[in-house]
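Mods, move this if it's the wrong board.
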Amino acid sequence: MTNAVNQERLAEELDPWRGVSFSGVTLVLGTGTGRQVPLLAEKIRQAEGLLVVADVATAHLDALREQLVAPDIAWVQARARSIPLLHESVDLLLLNGLLRELPTERFGLLFEELWRTLVPGGQLRIADILDASEDPAHHAWAERNRIVRRLGLALRRPVAVSVDLRAAVRLLRGTGFEEMRATLLPGYILTDAWLQETAEAIHGMAGRVVDANLRRLILNEDIERLAQAYMQGEQRAPERFVLQAVKPGDLSVAMESPFTESDLNIPLD
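Not the wrong board. C-alpha coordinates:
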Protein backbone atom coordinates (compact mmCIF):
# COMPACT_ATOMS: atom_id res chain seq x y z
CA MET A 1 0.00 0.00 0.00
CA THR A 2 2.82 2.40 0.92
CA ASN A 3 4.57 1.85 -2.43
CA ALA A 4 1.32 2.51 -4.28
CA VAL A 5 0.81 5.78 -2.40
CA ASN A 6 4.40 6.86 -3.08
CA GLN A 7 4.03 6.07 -6.78
CA GLU A 8 0.83 8.10 -6.92
CA ARG A 9 2.50 11.07 -5.25
CA LEU A 10 5.44 10.82 -7.66
CA ALA A 11 3.04 10.80 -10.62
CA GLU A 12 1.36 13.92 -9.26
CA GLU A 13 4.68 15.74 -8.89
CA LEU A 14 5.67 14.85 -12.44
CA ASP A 15 2.28 15.91 -13.82
CA PRO A 16 0.88 19.00 -12.03
CA TRP A 17 -2.14 18.95 -14.37
CA ARG A 18 -3.23 15.49 -13.33
CA GLY A 19 -7.04 15.38 -13.00
CA VAL A 20 -7.69 18.55 -15.06
CA SER A 21 -10.02 18.24 -18.05
CA PHE A 22 -8.77 19.79 -21.30
CA SER A 23 -11.55 18.57 -23.61
CA GLY A 24 -13.21 21.99 -23.89
CA VAL A 25 -11.84 25.48 -24.64
CA THR A 26 -8.78 26.42 -22.59
CA LEU A 27 -7.71 30.07 -22.52
CA VAL A 28 -4.20 31.02 -21.40
CA LEU A 29 -3.79 34.70 -20.56
CA GLY A 30 -0.14 35.69 -20.85
CA THR A 31 2.59 33.51 -22.36
CA GLY A 32 4.90 33.87 -19.34
CA THR A 33 8.27 32.27 -20.00
CA GLY A 34 6.73 30.25 -22.82
CA ARG A 35 7.50 26.88 -21.21
CA GLN A 36 3.98 26.11 -20.06
CA VAL A 37 2.14 26.59 -23.36
CA PRO A 38 3.79 23.69 -25.28
CA LEU A 39 3.00 21.30 -22.41
CA LEU A 40 -0.60 22.42 -22.34
CA ALA A 41 -0.86 22.20 -26.11
CA GLU A 42 0.06 18.52 -26.06
CA LYS A 43 -2.45 17.70 -23.34
CA ILE A 44 -5.20 19.61 -25.12
CA ARG A 45 -4.38 17.89 -28.40
CA GLN A 46 -4.70 14.49 -26.72
CA ALA A 47 -8.05 15.53 -25.20
CA GLU A 48 -9.26 16.92 -28.56
CA GLY A 49 -9.84 20.32 -27.03
CA LEU A 50 -9.03 23.84 -28.23
CA LEU A 51 -6.27 26.08 -26.88
CA VAL A 52 -6.47 29.87 -27.09
CA VAL A 53 -3.31 31.78 -26.18
CA ALA A 54 -3.65 35.52 -25.58
CA ASP A 55 -0.87 38.02 -24.90
CA VAL A 56 -0.48 41.74 -25.40
CA ALA A 57 2.99 41.27 -26.97
CA THR A 58 2.92 40.02 -30.55
CA ALA A 59 6.60 39.06 -30.30
CA HIS A 60 5.79 36.54 -27.56
CA LEU A 61 2.96 35.07 -29.60
CA ASP A 62 5.07 34.88 -32.76
CA ALA A 63 7.90 33.06 -30.95
CA LEU A 64 5.51 30.40 -29.67
CA ARG A 65 3.64 30.15 -32.95
CA GLU A 66 6.88 29.16 -34.68
CA GLN A 67 7.27 26.27 -32.23
CA LEU A 68 3.67 25.10 -32.25
CA VAL A 69 2.12 24.77 -35.66
CA ALA A 70 -1.22 23.13 -34.93
CA PRO A 71 -4.82 23.65 -36.05
CA ASP A 72 -6.17 23.37 -32.49
CA ILE A 73 -4.34 26.49 -31.22
CA ALA A 74 -5.67 30.02 -31.69
CA TRP A 75 -3.34 33.00 -31.16
CA VAL A 76 -4.86 36.28 -30.01
CA GLN A 77 -3.27 39.63 -29.28
CA ALA A 78 -5.22 41.06 -26.36
CA ARG A 79 -5.08 42.56 -22.92
CA ALA A 80 -6.49 40.63 -19.99
CA ARG A 81 -8.94 43.42 -19.18
CA SER A 82 -10.55 43.13 -22.63
CA ILE A 83 -10.63 39.54 -23.87
CA PRO A 84 -11.92 39.33 -27.47
CA LEU A 85 -14.01 36.21 -26.88
CA LEU A 86 -17.74 35.67 -26.60
CA HIS A 87 -19.57 35.56 -23.30
CA GLU A 88 -19.43 32.14 -21.63
CA SER A 89 -17.13 30.58 -24.23
CA VAL A 90 -14.21 29.30 -22.08
CA ASP A 91 -14.18 26.11 -19.99
CA LEU A 92 -10.76 26.48 -18.32
CA LEU A 93 -8.98 29.81 -17.86
CA LEU A 94 -5.34 29.99 -16.79
CA LEU A 95 -3.30 32.98 -15.58
CA ASN A 96 0.38 32.34 -14.92
CA GLY A 97 2.37 35.27 -13.52
CA LEU A 98 -0.08 37.82 -14.88
CA LEU A 99 -1.93 38.92 -11.75
CA ARG A 100 1.12 40.55 -10.17
CA GLU A 101 1.35 42.90 -13.13
CA LEU A 102 -1.87 44.61 -12.03
CA PRO A 103 -2.38 46.95 -9.06
CA THR A 104 -4.58 45.29 -6.45
CA GLU A 105 -7.32 47.88 -6.97
CA ARG A 106 -7.75 46.62 -10.55
CA PHE A 107 -8.25 42.96 -9.64
CA GLY A 108 -12.02 43.40 -9.51
CA LEU A 109 -12.25 44.63 -13.11
CA LEU A 110 -10.08 41.75 -14.31
CA PHE A 111 -12.13 39.17 -12.42
CA GLU A 112 -15.35 40.52 -13.92
CA GLU A 113 -13.86 39.99 -17.39
CA LEU A 114 -12.77 36.47 -16.50
CA TRP A 115 -16.27 35.76 -15.17
CA ARG A 116 -17.78 37.02 -18.43
CA THR A 117 -15.78 34.64 -20.59
CA LEU A 118 -16.17 31.50 -18.45
CA VAL A 119 -19.08 29.10 -18.98
CA PRO A 120 -21.24 28.19 -15.97
CA GLY A 121 -19.13 25.67 -14.12
CA GLY A 122 -15.98 27.00 -15.79
CA GLN A 123 -12.76 26.76 -13.83
CA LEU A 124 -10.19 29.45 -13.09
CA ARG A 125 -6.59 28.68 -12.12
CA ILE A 126 -4.22 31.50 -11.13
CA ALA A 127 -0.51 30.82 -10.52
CA ASP A 128 1.70 33.61 -9.18
CA ILE A 129 4.12 34.64 -6.43
CA LEU A 130 3.75 36.13 -2.96
CA ASP A 131 5.80 38.98 -1.54
CA ALA A 132 9.01 38.26 0.34
CA SER A 133 8.45 37.49 4.03
CA GLU A 134 10.62 38.20 7.09
CA ASP A 135 12.18 34.76 6.67
CA PRO A 136 16.00 35.18 6.50
CA ALA A 137 15.94 32.98 3.39
CA HIS A 138 14.00 35.74 1.60
CA HIS A 139 16.39 38.62 2.36
CA ALA A 140 17.96 38.66 -1.11
CA TRP A 141 14.57 38.62 -2.80
CA ALA A 142 13.35 41.40 -0.51
CA GLU A 143 16.36 43.51 -1.55
CA ARG A 144 15.60 42.72 -5.18
CA ASN A 145 12.00 43.90 -4.72
CA ARG A 146 13.11 47.06 -2.93
CA ILE A 147 15.41 47.98 -5.81
CA VAL A 148 12.73 47.18 -8.39
CA ARG A 149 10.26 49.44 -6.60
CA ARG A 150 12.85 52.24 -6.42
CA LEU A 151 13.52 51.91 -10.15
CA GLY A 152 9.81 51.88 -10.90
CA LEU A 153 9.30 55.08 -8.94
CA ALA A 154 12.27 56.76 -10.61
CA LEU A 155 11.15 55.74 -14.10
CA ARG A 156 7.46 56.33 -13.35
CA ARG A 157 6.61 52.80 -14.35
CA PRO A 158 4.48 50.22 -12.56
CA VAL A 159 6.32 47.29 -11.04
CA ALA A 160 5.27 43.64 -10.90
CA VAL A 161 6.73 41.92 -7.85
CA SER A 162 4.01 40.04 -5.97
CA VAL A 163 0.31 39.41 -5.37
CA ASP A 164 -1.85 40.19 -2.35
CA LEU A 165 -3.44 36.74 -2.18
CA ARG A 166 -6.05 37.57 0.44
CA ALA A 167 -7.23 40.57 -1.56
CA ALA A 168 -7.45 38.39 -4.67
CA VAL A 169 -9.57 35.83 -2.80
CA ARG A 170 -11.86 38.52 -1.40
CA LEU A 171 -12.41 40.11 -4.81
CA LEU A 172 -12.94 36.76 -6.53
CA ARG A 173 -15.61 35.95 -3.97
CA GLY A 174 -17.16 39.38 -4.51
CA THR A 175 -17.33 38.68 -8.24
CA GLY A 176 -19.25 35.47 -7.58
CA PHE A 177 -16.60 32.75 -7.81
CA GLU A 178 -16.94 29.79 -5.47
CA GLU A 179 -15.05 26.67 -4.34
CA MET A 180 -11.84 28.65 -3.90
CA ARG A 181 -8.72 26.85 -2.76
CA ALA A 182 -5.19 28.18 -2.50
CA THR A 183 -2.07 26.06 -2.30
CA LEU A 184 1.40 27.36 -1.49
CA LEU A 185 4.43 25.92 -3.23
CA PRO A 186 8.03 26.48 -2.08
CA GLY A 187 10.03 29.15 -3.86
CA TYR A 188 13.01 28.10 -5.94
CA ILE A 189 16.56 28.31 -4.62
CA LEU A 190 18.48 31.40 -5.76
CA THR A 191 21.82 30.74 -7.47
CA ASP A 192 24.92 32.67 -8.49
CA ALA A 193 23.42 32.85 -11.98
CA TRP A 194 20.28 34.46 -10.52
CA LEU A 195 22.39 37.07 -8.72
CA GLN A 196 24.36 37.88 -11.86
CA GLU A 197 21.27 38.11 -14.05
CA THR A 198 19.48 40.27 -11.49
CA ALA A 199 22.44 42.62 -11.13
CA GLU A 200 22.74 42.93 -14.92
CA ALA A 201 19.04 43.72 -15.21
CA ILE A 202 19.35 46.39 -12.51
CA HIS A 203 22.34 47.90 -14.33
CA GLY A 204 20.30 48.09 -17.52
CA MET A 205 17.32 49.74 -15.87
CA ALA A 206 19.47 52.13 -13.80
CA GLY A 207 21.03 53.41 -17.01
CA ARG A 208 17.66 54.99 -17.83
CA VAL A 209 17.44 56.92 -14.53
CA VAL A 210 17.91 60.64 -15.18
CA ASP A 211 18.91 61.59 -11.63
CA ALA A 212 22.68 60.95 -11.53
CA ASN A 213 22.83 60.71 -7.72
CA LEU A 214 20.03 58.16 -7.62
CA ARG A 215 21.67 56.21 -10.43
CA ARG A 216 24.96 56.04 -8.50
CA LEU A 217 23.09 54.99 -5.35
CA ILE A 218 21.47 52.09 -7.16
CA LEU A 219 24.64 50.97 -8.93
CA ASN A 220 27.07 51.40 -6.04
CA GLU A 221 25.05 50.73 -2.89
CA ASP A 222 21.87 48.86 -3.77
CA ILE A 223 23.57 46.15 -5.82
CA GLU A 224 26.13 45.71 -3.03
CA ARG A 225 23.32 45.27 -0.49
CA LEU A 226 21.72 42.72 -2.79
CA ALA A 227 24.98 40.75 -2.98
CA GLN A 228 25.43 40.88 0.79
CA ALA A 229 21.91 39.58 1.38
CA TYR A 230 22.55 36.76 -1.08
CA MET A 231 25.72 35.77 0.82
CA GLN A 232 23.85 35.37 4.16
CA GLY A 233 23.09 31.74 3.44
CA GLU A 234 20.79 29.73 1.22
CA GLN A 235 18.35 32.17 -0.34
CA ARG A 236 15.03 31.43 -1.95
CA ALA A 237 12.35 33.18 -3.92
CA PRO A 238 9.09 33.65 -1.98
CA GLU A 239 6.41 30.99 -2.09
CA ARG A 240 4.39 30.57 -5.22
CA PHE A 241 0.69 29.90 -5.06
CA VAL A 242 -1.99 28.27 -7.15
CA LEU A 243 -5.45 29.71 -6.58
CA GLN A 244 -8.41 27.79 -7.98
CA ALA A 245 -12.01 28.95 -8.28
CA VAL A 246 -15.18 27.90 -10.07
CA LYS A 247 -17.92 29.95 -11.71
CA PRO A 248 -21.07 28.31 -10.33
CA GLY A 249 -23.16 26.37 -12.79
CA ASP A 250 -24.39 22.96 -13.89
CA LEU A 251 -21.38 22.23 -16.07
CA SER A 252 -18.87 22.15 -13.23
CA VAL A 253 -16.46 19.20 -13.22
CA ALA A 254 -14.31 18.39 -10.18
CA MET A 255 -10.82 19.86 -10.64
CA GLU A 256 -8.41 18.13 -8.31
CA SER A 257 -5.19 19.91 -7.41
CA PRO A 258 -2.37 17.34 -7.46
CA PHE A 259 0.23 18.90 -5.22
CA THR A 260 2.56 17.13 -2.81
CA GLU A 261 1.97 16.63 0.89
CA SER A 262 4.56 19.30 1.69
CA ASP A 263 2.36 21.98 0.14
CA LEU A 264 0.57 24.23 2.60
CA ASN A 265 -3.17 24.77 2.19
CA ILE A 266 -3.96 28.20 3.62
CA PRO A 267 -7.37 29.26 4.99
CA LEU A 268 -9.25 31.71 2.81
CA ASP A 269 -11.67 33.11 5.40
